[in-house]
Amino acid sequence: xLNGRGLRAEALHGGLSQDQRDRVMKRFRxxxxxxxxxxxxxxxxxxxxxxxxxxxxDVPTAAEAYVHRIGRTGRARREGVAITLVEPRERGLLRNIxxxxxxxxxxxxxxxxxxxxxxxxxxxxGELRAAIxxxxxxxxxxxxxxxxxxxxxxxxxxxxLKQAGSRDGVAVEExxxxxxxxxxxxxxxxxxxxRDRSETRATRAGSDASQPIARLFIGAGRKAKVRPGDxxxxxxxxxxxxxxxxxxxxxxxxxxxxxxxEEIADDVIxxxxxxxxxxxxxxxxxxxxxx
Length: 291
What we know:
- It is a single chain.
- By secondary structure, the protein is of the alpha/beta class.
- The chain folds into three domains: 3-101, P-loop containing nucleotide triphosphate hydrolases (Rossmann fold), CATH 3.40.50; 113-167, no CATH class; 211-286, Alpha-Beta Plaits, CATH 3.30.70.
- 42% of the residues lie in helices and 12% in strands.
- It has helices at 18-29, 40-43, 63-70, 91-101, 113-134, 138-147, 153-167, 191-209, 228-239, 265-273, and strands at 9-12, 35-38, 53-56, 81-84, 213-218, 249-251, 256-261, 284-286.
- Strand 6 (249-251) and strand 7 form a beta hairpin.
- The chain is flat.
- The two termini are 41 Å apart.
């Protein structure tokens, strides 16, 4: 998948022969490979001085394994960055790592597609500025001038940027939904207790499904950097209800839709109208398309 997106990636795992492993590492050390995807066992002991980032696709259950992973970057007193992709339910594992390393791990959210596009456009703006200052644009200026009698100059520039972006092979990214999950302590449960808990959840879900649901319109979305967790937290805190009582959350560019129990819908509307979301007061009402 990474190679299909134009990135040069190699795999390193226990199924490779020593000859295959040596070839992969030779390409990685020679900078002909951008990304090395490795298992824990295969990655241990790698000594590559130019590794700038280590990305943990999952949180290791053993804190010592995390130390071994991130030890592949920042070697020989160099600086390096370790990024770990974490689900809310795995935050207990992060606390174990912090206790072992006696360092705090900075928590951040996954950038949205809008964030990514804004970053790319800012990079493009810098590159354009540098190209203008460098000059030598006569050939391209002639093409632009030939189009100015028919089109606006800004439209010509915007179309050129769009065309350049499509030629770079930038894929259309899909938004990654933010999981709305409460942080629960990680502990081992017996099979019987886990079965009892599952039956309880199923019974509760069945009873909740029969309750009438109201869908609320909230006049802020992705462009206002609103995330599902923001809405769930605001409703739970302002109304004083359990976050588990809140139903589906849908975030669009300009607005959001949230499902809540009908019996508290008016209370939720009143509470959200009296507070701010992302520092601003927004329109909150029942969705007109609600059935």
